[in-house]
Amino acid sequence: MAGLRLLLVSTPVGPLGSGLGGGVELTLLNLGQELLRRGHGVTVLAPAGSVLGDIPVVGLIGELQPTAHTQGRNTPITLPKQSVLGQMWDYARQHQGEFDLIVNFAYDWLPFYLTPFFQTPVAHFVTMGSLSEAMDGAVQRVAAQFPGRLGAYTRTQAETFGCGEAFAILSSAIDLEAYQFCPTPGNALAWLGRISPEKALEDALAAAEVAQVPLKILGKLEDEAYWQTLCQRFPQAEASYLGFLPTQELQAVVGQCRALVMTPRWVEAFGNVAIEALACGVPVIAYDRGGPSEIVQSGTTGWLVPPDDVVALTDAMQRLETLNRSACRHQAETDYSLPALGERFEAWFGQCLSSPSPGGDGIGTIATWAPYPSP
Ligand code: HBI
Question: Could you tell me the CA-to-CA distances from 146 to 122, 160, 166, 355, 362 in Å, in that order?
Fold first, then answer.
């Protein structure tokens, strides 16, 4: 595909590099580098102070958007004064003629609403599952008016919006050169992730205690009180907290483990930690829920167990010998490399640029608007 001029619009919750943007920061870094390598033009729009490797970033001044995580299903859409979200999309409007395609990575109502107002096609990579009625409506409206312009990490995540068939499933990727295959592990299991209730670390601790295997815990300690209750509840668990490590150290610790344990209480859109483990040859034991259920090949590169079933989790921890560490690394190389990601996104961009926009001049005159899909 000839070099496209691409504008990638980031999340308004924080500057790139601050960690506030979570998984989408990694997605933008990996995708941006791969698209540049393939000869496309890439410009990233993001809040001022953003840094993204050697990818050109235009930083906009403005007030950050509250994270969607804290909003309820019926919370009204709010925009702070001088919102950076508004600033980013006004910049996109003014400069749209310089680009062939604009790709939105914000999980916010405004960019979806503005889709018909642009002459340059706008596509949306959705980074979480359904969280609110307003966002569901905005997503469904783009699905109805601009078929093909929605992308997501996983099918399960896309289905949460009630229009899963409208999404291109793009999965994720990591820079495999940063992860070393480890053929001979020690005895411990690993648990990776933000230490907060929706990740249900208590289930992994409970199972590890019964299975009598050591558990190495890594990740950002977001909820101190929650951590303290876990330490009190599982005094016997042979568990150690190793902190929030940079990739180089993280992959060295995880590679030494016999398996990664994932216990998500919510629908993880993807679960990057799963492919980090596979890249090191480490099988994944995960609840059969959300992103990990589309990553783990149960019986070969890990085990999928019934969600929230700690007994099944314990059993799986004791059936690791039949899993194949080389198959884990191979799956990462086949499905989760940067070239594989680039292939998937290029195919999606081609679809976005070929699928017909609705009638009308595409600048959102009332007559062309499809009414909100009736609930
Ligand atoms: N909240 N309002 C809002 N907008 C985002 O783009 C956003 C968010 N919360 C979390 C988040 N993005 C990312 O961390 C995830 O999409 C990965």
Answer: 9, 19, 9, 8, 11
How much is the mean pLDDT over the chain? 92
State whether the beta carbon of 68 lies less than 6 angstroms from ligand 1. yes
Q: How far apart are CA 235 and CA 231, in angstroms?
A: 6
Ligand 1 binding pocket includes 106 (Cβ within 6 Å): yes
Measured in angstroms, how far is the CA atom of residue 19 from the centroid of ligand 1? 11
> Among residues of the chain, what percentage have pLDDT more than 70?
95
Q: Are residues 182 and 133 in the same domain?
A: no
313 lines ligand 1 (CB under 6 A): no
What gap in Å lies between CA 151 and CA 168, rounded to an integer?
5
pLDDT of residue 163: 95
Model confidence over 181-199: pLDDT tens digits?
999 999 999 999 888 888 8
Alpha-carbon span 250 to 256, nearest angstrom: 10
Residue 38 scores a pLDDT above 70 = yes
Q: Provide the pLDDT for residue 348.
A: 98
Task: Tell me, yes or no, whether 122 and 213 share the same domain.
Answer: no
Residues 47 and 168 in one domain: yes
Ligand 1: atom nearest CA of 20 is 14
Give a yes or no: residue 238 inside a domain.
yes
| Structural domain for 61, as ranges | 5-173+338-354
Nearest protein CA to atom 11 of ligand 1, as residue: 21
Using most ligand atoms within 8 A of CB, pick from 8, 9, 10, 13 the residue to mutate for ligand 1: 13
User: Is 88 touching ligand 1 by the criterion CB < 6 Å?
Assistant: no
How many angstroms is it from 285 CA to the middle of ligand 1? 27
**Is residue 358 over pLDDT 70?**
no
Label residue 45 by pLDDT band (50, 70, 90): very high
Number of domains present in the structure of the chain: 2
User: CB burial class (10 A; 0-12, 13-18, 19+) of residue 374?
Assistant: exposed
